[in-house]
């Protein structure tokens, strides 16, 4: 999970893979729970230099972090993603793929995670098909030293199976929600990043 250390969109000594893993980590941290002030400050201190849509989305999120109040962001997170009863916006793949939670897509995901040698931590309160959990898996695959896991084919297979079919719809649901303020920028970054991922995988 992303920590409070200073982050950069991409630096000369990082390389593309490290930058990808970092963004997956940032998205996991932002969507798993309301971000701590330290995370907001770290993102605010790392504006992107460039004019691509992804870099512009990062810059907009960094600006939102500079003006954000942690308590207000927490209230927004809870209103959007927790709520009373059914959340306003679902962050679970099973919901978008089947219309229900804890359905067949989650079982298939768990089977694939087992093949990768991964399982849900007891400390994790969300199911494995949560957007943040899936981002953590992608970050793990990118950073893995295991040749069977840390290769583009394994990343693409996992992404195409468990994220591509629904992830943009989820991002758009957050962006379009009338009560989304800070999280509109977080979802915009996520959508732009996932679009770049899809394009890269399609060209691989």
UniProtKB/TrEMBL annotation:
The keyword Chaperone applies. InterPro entries: DMSO/NO3_reduct_chaperone, TorD-like_sf, TorD/DmsD_chaperones. Keywords: Chaperone. Pfam families: Nitrate_red_del (PF02613). This is Molecular chaperone.
